[in-house]
């Protein structure tokens, strides 16, 4: 069902919980099983912990616009007590959800007790309750593409095509506009905001990317409205590569700070780039995700795949990066050894303890037995959303309406 298509995946700060959002506005939370001496092989398995409806479809009567319930992003808040908080957004509003475990026991409902009667505590299964604690609405005219929690844990930002707003978690009816790129005349519009993220350690710094392949770093200490960026990252285009599709494929679909805060990673249609915050004129690393598609851009334009928005993630130590591709392939690049691998999320590889075999795509010429031809790739199977456990080699990969969780070999 289209409503079941996974639209975002996110581990919490400890990696014990994993949240997915889908096109039907539903959030599913998975919890990692604790190790047990009886079943050591089950270590690391994630089981469904809670499922709830976060967003409902709405209709904006002023604009005659249907607002779909699809969840674009989920961000966890650091855990302060026994409850878990997460922030989810659809195209136009954010909701903050609270999860709490209810006690594993309940008083019998016998109504009234006589003087000598003591209420009995009957054991029951643990219950998990999800309640919407805040709804932050009516601040975006355009489609929300990003939410990012600030390192001060008091504020967060939401970005749409033309504006970025700053919110306080305690105030739902008011936000501060910190970036506005909307021209006075919409016919003069040349670019849109595609993604935005706060620096992991400096609460005054954030970056946002654009459809023109540029990244701007802004400092909120300089002015209330960050229309003037502090740094501007852009790679000059190679004139020999110029084509009709150049502008479309240079649009950045995701931007992520490294955990250290030293680097920014961006994903465009064909590549992943790593930028050093101290060097604006070119990336320090460029990784080709699926360069064999360069000859297929015409048909990818015709079937709208060229507009797919792939995300990218760092591992916990910033040494490996991962991003998705077509045919349910996903790519990993080791920044130290410069080795890369293509893996496939499939039913065969999802059997317990199955080992993922590297895949290779062959372009023209003679095809080897273990290779797949570029002409037989399935473009309807695509991995747009992935997540990496904050400290371990456990990854979550969303392939349409299936979630795959892989981990390093356990001895």
UniProtKB/TrEMBL annotation:
One of its GO terms (cellular component) is protein phosphatase type 2A complex. It comes from the Eukaryota. SMART domains: WD40. The keyword Endoplasmic reticulum does not apply. InterPro entries: PP2A_PR55, PP2A_PR55_CS, WD40/YVTN_repeat-like_dom_sf, WD40_repeat_dom_sf, WD40_rpt. GO terms for molecular function: protein phosphatase regulator activity. Keywords: Repeat, WD repeat. Belongs to the phosphatase 2A regulatory subunit B family. This is Serine/threonine-protein phosphatase 2A 55 kDa regulatory subunit B. It comes from Chaetura pelagica (Chimney swift).
């Amino acid at each position: 069902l289209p409503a079941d298509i996974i639209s975002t995946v996110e581990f919490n700060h400890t990696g014990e919980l994993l949240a997915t959002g889908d096109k039907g506005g539903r959030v599913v939370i998975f919890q990692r099983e604790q190790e047990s001496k009886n079943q050591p092989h089950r270590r690391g398995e994630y089981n469904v912990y809670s499922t709830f409806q976060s967003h409902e479809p709405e209709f904006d009567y002023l604009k005659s616009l249907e607002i779909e319930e699809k969840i674009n992003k989920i961000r966890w808040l650091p855990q302060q007590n026994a409850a878990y908080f997460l922030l989810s957004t659809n195209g136009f509003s954010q909701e903050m959800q609270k999860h709490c475990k209810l006690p594993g026991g309940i008083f019998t409902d016998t109504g009234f007790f006589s003087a000598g009667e003591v209420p009995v505590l009957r054991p029951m299964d643990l219950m998990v309750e999800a309640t919407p604690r805040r709804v932050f609405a009516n601040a975006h005219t355009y489609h929300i593409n990003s939410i990012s929690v600030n390192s001060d844990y008091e504020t967060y930002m939401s970005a749409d095509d033309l504006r970025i707003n700053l919110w306080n978690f305690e105030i739902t009816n008011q936000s501060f506009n910190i970036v506005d790129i909307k021209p006075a005349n919409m016919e003069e519009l040349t670019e849109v905001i595609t993604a935005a993220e706060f620096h992991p350690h400096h609460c005054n710094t954030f970056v946002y990317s654009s459809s023109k392949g540029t990244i701007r770093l802004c400092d909120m200490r300089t002015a209330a409205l960050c229309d003037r960026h502090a740094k501007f990252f852009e790679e000059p285009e190679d004139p020999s590569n110029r084509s009709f599709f150049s502008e479309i494929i240079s649009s950045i679909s995701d931007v992520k700070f490294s955990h250290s805060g030293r680097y920014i990673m961006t994903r465009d249609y064909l590549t992943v780039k790593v930028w050093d915050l101290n060097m604006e004129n070119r990336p320090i690393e460029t990784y080709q995700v699926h360069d064999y598609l360069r000859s297929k851009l015409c048909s990818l334009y015709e079937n709208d795949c060229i507009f797919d928005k792939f995300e990218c993630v760092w591992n916990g130590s910033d040494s490996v990066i991962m991003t998705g591709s077509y045919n349910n392939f996903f790519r990993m690049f080791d920044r130290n050894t410069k080795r890369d691998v293509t893996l496939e999320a499939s039913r065969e590889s999802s059997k317990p303890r199955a080992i993922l075999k590297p895949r290779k795509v062959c372009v023209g010429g003679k095809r080897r037995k273990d290779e797949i031809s570029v002409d037989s790739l399935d473009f309807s199977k695509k991995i747009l959303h992935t997540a990496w456990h904050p400290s371990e080699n456990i990854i979550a990969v969303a392939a349409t309406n299936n979630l795959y969780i892989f981990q390093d070999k356990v001895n």
